[in-house]
Write a structure and sequence with these properties.
Strand order of the largest sheet: 2-8-7-6-5-3-4
Helix content: 25-40%
Largest sheet: 7 strands, mixed
Shape: globular
Radius of gyration: 22 Å
Length: 403
């Protein structure tokens, strides 16, 4: 018999049988975001035109500028420093390759630096640059995922570009962006940070930190998939990665996705500091409940951890089995298991912080949102207790460990 589930957060009045804790992958759009997008699809569906345009184009030009102002204000930037993108992957590619390719005009070989635990779109952008002859440095991290600052200070000598994320996508480590920005500034390097997992959870004011490029995405803050923006500090030059017309200050050709932009702006307007405080309390309660399970270990720091992230390894079991059995019990989570990876490789982030294959393969990420509740944290911990106990009963690896 097919089970009927009412997904958690599917609507403000929806009953919930399933607990959705994969918000680090994608969040549901809020009702207000959906309505803002709906208007752009069904009523005001024009796109910005040139200097002169018909009424739909003029309305769209005004709307996109207001959205630009909304996003800019949220990070202390100026509206003209915001370029809309299709999300974090495009934003990071534009920032990294755009900056380095522009600097190639002066020197075809640049020295560029990143960390070992960045998102794959960052790491693969650096791999591409390396394949084209650029010198790439990859900074290690400590056991909690914090960048090794002394190694960074040494490696950045002679570098022209640095990309270090603000908060890690798997273990929630929040880097000291101000300090890293000062190191980049002292070295004369352009500094980019991927803030997609910290935007609207951590305070960001680009007017007070030495960051030149900053990536954000809407799909992690209850905005739509396919929405995002890149902050580009005035004076920083990039080579466009999508060419055509001169929209988005000549950096992103093509008709702008007005529904996505409207949804992103609405998600930013909806954000409240009290929601972040609520998520932090839920995070701490969930961590406490999960660590009561024997042979479990928190990945990432206790302090300086983004409010919506929990990541725990459960020794003796595979992450894929955890995910599937948890899902069968109405709990939606994510794993770092090699079996769950398209490349069949276990989490490089967990490996980078010094954990072994067993810990990486059993690493499990719980992503929270403002639509979750403290009761769901209690229930999630109870479900996980049962899931881990059941899997360990049939796990030769765990039985051998216990013996």
């Amino acid at each position: 018999m097919t089970k009927k589930y009412y997904i958690s957060g599917a609507g403000e009045t929806a009953m919930t049988d399933v607990i959705y804790l994969d918000n680090g992958n994608v969040t549901r759009v809020s009702s207000r975001v959906f309505e803002a997008m709906k208007e752009r699809y069904l009523e005001n569906y024009g796109v910005p035109g040139g200097e002169f345009g018909h009424m739909y184009e003029e309305e769209a030009s005004e709307a996109i500028w207001k959205a630009r102002e909304t996003v800019a204000e949220s990070i202390g930037a100026k509206a003209e420093e915001i370029v809309f993108t299709s999300g974090v992957t495009e934003g990071n590619n534009l920032a990294i390759k755009g900056a380095v390719e522009y600097m190639e005009k002066k020197d075809s070989r640049q020295k560029v630096i990143t960390s070992a635990i960045e998102r794959k779109c960052v790491l693969n952008s650096f791999k591409e640059l390396e394949s084209r002859g650029h010198e790439v440095g990859r900074i290690g991290v400590d056991s909690e995922g914090f960048v090794r600052m002394e190694e960074l200070k040494e490696s950045i000598k002679g570098a022209s570009f640095l990309s270090i994320q603000h908060a890690n996508q798997e273990i929630g480590t929040v880097q000291d962006i101000r300090a890293i920005g000062e190191i980049a500034d002292d070295a004369g390097a352009i500094f980019h940070t991927d803030a997609s997992h910290s935007f609207l959870r951590e305070k960001i004011d680009v007017s007070r930190i030495n960051v030149d490029l900053l990536t954000i995405s809407g799909h992690l803050i209850h905005g739509p998939l396919g929405s995002g923006a890149l902050f580009i500090r005035e004076g920083v030059r990039l080579k466009p990665q999508i060419v055509g017309d001169t929209r988005e200050f000549g950096l992103r050709a093509g008709n702008p996705n007005m529904p996505a932009i409207a949804g992103l702006a609405e998600a930013v307007r909806e954000a409240r500091e009290e929601d972040v405080v609520k998520m932090a309390h839920m995070r701490d309660r969930l961590i406490k409940g999960l660590l009561q399970i024997p042979d479990s270990e928190l990945n990432g720091p206790v302090k300086n951890r983004v409010a919506d992230n929990v990541n725990v390894s459960f020794r003796g079991v595979e992450g894929e089995a955890i995910l599937m059995l948890a899902s069968d019990n109405g709990l939606i989570i994510r794993t770092g298991s090699a079996c769950f990876s398209p490349e069949l490789k276990y989490s490089y982030v967990i490996s980078a912080i010094g954990r072994g294959a067993e810990e990486a393969n059993s690493s499990t990420r719980f992503g929270l949102s403002r639509y979750n509740t403290m009761d769901e944290m209690e229930r999630a911990a109870e479900i996980m207790q049962g899931v881990i106990e059941k899997l360990r009963e049939i796990s030769p690896l765990y039985r051998n460990r216990r013996n």
